[in-house]
Design brief:
five-stranded parallel beta sheet, globular, Rossmann fold, Arc Repressor Mutant, subunit A, 2 domains, alpha/beta, 9 helices, 198 residues
Length: 198
């Protein structure tokens, strides 16, 4: 049975692209222009993953996320932001988002984030507790300094996709869910240990 993904964005063109991308990847999708419509459907239809834009008229993505977590606490939620706003992304993570994705969306990175969110528990991942590479440690330090993936890509002269992949590896190795808040909490405790292993 196909996994069912709900997608919320007020831009019809974005809806079409995401719908096609997810369908081609083998998922069943339901797209909504308004957060309130999505919320109503979530009360009566099964959903495996919710993906929502942040900036929308009426109820925004953060408010939708907060309400969804009250109804279905275990539902993974990916938040999309086109504004490269780290505080906004952190607010989404604090509200219970699994991760946030920055626009413009890269197809492969987007699908990787979807798969990662659907897998849920990272503890069984083969990278858990592996030693961070020198590059991963440097990226981790930048994350802890509050830098966005876009900032890190610019500072390291790499593509955002490369940074997103390395970011995901760091999360797996530390053994946390894909949440910047958890990275900060765990890394602050484990950073001396991680550094000692170099």
């Amino acid at each position: 049975m196909k996994q069912h993904i709900f997608f919320v964005d007020d831009e019809p063109e974005v809806q079409k692209v995401i719908d096609r991308t997810l369908e081609q990847a083998g998922f069943k999708t339901s797209c909504f222009s308004r957060a309130s419509d999505c919320l109503e459907q979530l009360r009566s239809r099964p959903c495996d993953l919710l993906i929502t834009d942040v900036k929308m008229p009426g109820m925004d993505g953060i408010e939708l996320l907060t309400k969804v977590k009250c109804i279905i606490p275990s539902l993974p939620v990916l938040v999309i932001t086109g504004y490269g706003d780290v505080p906004l992304a952190v607010a989404a993570l604090k509200a219970g988002a699994s991760d946030f994705i920055e626009k413009p969306l890269n197809r492969q990175s987007f699908l990787s984030a979807v798969e990662f969110a659907l897998k849920g528990n990272t503890r069984s991942h083969p990278l858990v507790n592996k030693v961070l590479t020198k590059t991963e440690l440097e990226i981790l330090r930048l994350i802890l300094d509050g830098k966005s993936k876009k900032d890190i890509a610019r500072l390291r002269n790499r593509s955002i996709r490369t940074i997103e992949d390395q970011h995901r590896h760091i999360l797996h190795k530390i053994g946390v869910d894909n949440s910047i808040d958890l990275v900060k909490q765990v890394a602050v405790v484990r950073l001396p240990e991680l550094l000692a292993n170099r």
